[in-house]
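call fold(seq) -> tokens
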Amino acid sequence: MSMYIGVDLGGTNTAVGIVEENGKLIYSNSMPTRKEREPEEIIKDIENLILGVIDETKINKEEIESIGIGIPGIADYGTGSVIHCLNLNWSKIPLKKPLEKALGIPVFIDNDATLAGLAEFEAGAMKDVKNGVFITLGTGVGGGIIIDGKIHKGFNGIGSEIGHMLVDKNYYDCSCGRNGCLETFSSATALIKYTKKLMEEEDIDTIINEKIDGDLNNLNGKIIFHAAIRGDEIANKAVDRLVRYLAIGIINITSVIDPEVFVLGGGLSKAGFFLLDKVRTEVLKNKYFKTLPVGNIVLAELGNEAGIIGAAMLGKQHKKVNLFG
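ret:
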């Protein structure tokens, strides 16, 4: 059986795992990224972590088909370089070439949210469908789009940047410099910002204060959703706003791609069916072809393993593209 290595390169931790061709993660290990260091030092750590995982599993190096790396930024899939990665403060950093030279194994890189979507396609909530969209609701809003079983990348490799779809005028600008991006409405960051705004501007009692000890800096998405589930007015206003704009995003994507399934992942998706039911209701209420169904909206299944699995499956995806188009 072919084996693949996946690397989930994050601003806090770097994780490496061995994945079977069916998408099953059989072993993984991780270490702090320590992003303040030079890129060459971090790349050397990736190399050593990969060698360590191979050694721990006693897998013959010749059994490894390829290495895939997910980065929290924009990757040049062709050259294997990091075009821009804010979390690591990297710009135009070659990643493929030094690792291929050191390890003698083909290396591919792509955006981490895109690869989480690929993981769900290969082994999770999008398995057995041809067209699906993964939406990650975390610090920002990211995405992974699968069309006819292949990752949709676009001309410049940014074809899955769902979070930067414009949905409405907002009271603050996006980190990209524009105003109105979906991630300024439907990310954890947006949820926290808007909840703080409501708490400062509206004279409404809220149980959120109990959880944050009166310090708004302690506020997070988990606290807000727990309060909303308990019926808190402020929390529900903030969550409902997030849902309203996320539904707009889903409807907009439907008008262009019309996928079979939408998968919600990322930290906010841990709110589970409380969030899912609200999103489904809002989408159905506002869809434009009233007699036609919208793609099924479901929760991600792979959790924290998605980054490694999706990165590993990048080599398998590369083979598929080469063989079929």
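The mean pLDDT is 93.
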